[in-house]
Amino acid sequence: MGSGFLLIILVFFALMYFMSIRPQQQRAKRRLEMIRALQVGDEIITEGGIYGEVKSLDEDRIRLEVDADVEIVVARQAVAAKVPPEAEEGEAEHVDDEVPAAAEEPVADDRAAR
């Protein structure tokens, strides 16, 4: 086994580090920072898909209001993401209610022509 083989192994491990291990560490760091920065009033989604507004926080748990007068307590680590605030009504994109012309045309049935 020559030094070329050792060089190939080192390059392989360097690629593995920069392609998979480092990005995972960065994602974990960003998620931890997001969880630490949560404040009362933030809207979040949990790992289980529950949306709620943060009503109170302590070191390990978060109290969420999921509906009017319905509150649940979840672990801080169960928070998947902070929901971005919705756009103002004036800033919302307008979607045309019109159906595209191609969708209005009937589709010809090849079996009927035979």
Quick take:
The chain is of the alpha+beta class and 114 residues long. The protein is 37% helix and 25% strand. It has helices at residues 3-36, 101-104, 110-113, and strands spanning 43-46, 51-57, 61-67, 70-75, 79-82.
Backbone structural class: alpha+beta
Sheet-strand content, in percent, reads: 15-25%
Q: What is the radius of gyration? A: 26 Å
State the helical fraction.
25-40%
Reported by name, the CATH topology of the largest domain is SH3 type barrels
> Strand sequence of the main sheet, in spatial order?
4-3-2-1-5
Task: Domain count, please report it.
Answer: 2
Distance between the termini: 72 Å
Low-pLDDT windows of residues: 88-97
What kind of assembly state do the chains in view correspond to?
single chain
In the CATH scheme, the class of the largest domain would be Mainly Beta
Q: What would you say the CATH architecture of the largest domain is? A: Roll
Please provide the count of β strands: 5
What general form does the structure show?
rod-shaped
Tell me about the largest β-sheet.
Answer: 5 strands, antiparallel
If helices are DSSP runs of H or I spanning 4 or more residues, what is the number of helices? Answer: 3
| SSE string | HEEEEEHH
Q: How would you explain this protein's 3D organization?
A:
Residues 88-97 have low confidence and may be disordered. 4% of the residues are buried. With 114 residues, the chain is an alpha+beta fold. It has two domains: 1-37; 39-87, SH3 type barrels, CATH 2.30.30. Strand 3 and strand 4 (70-75) form a beta hairpin. It is built from three helices and five strands.
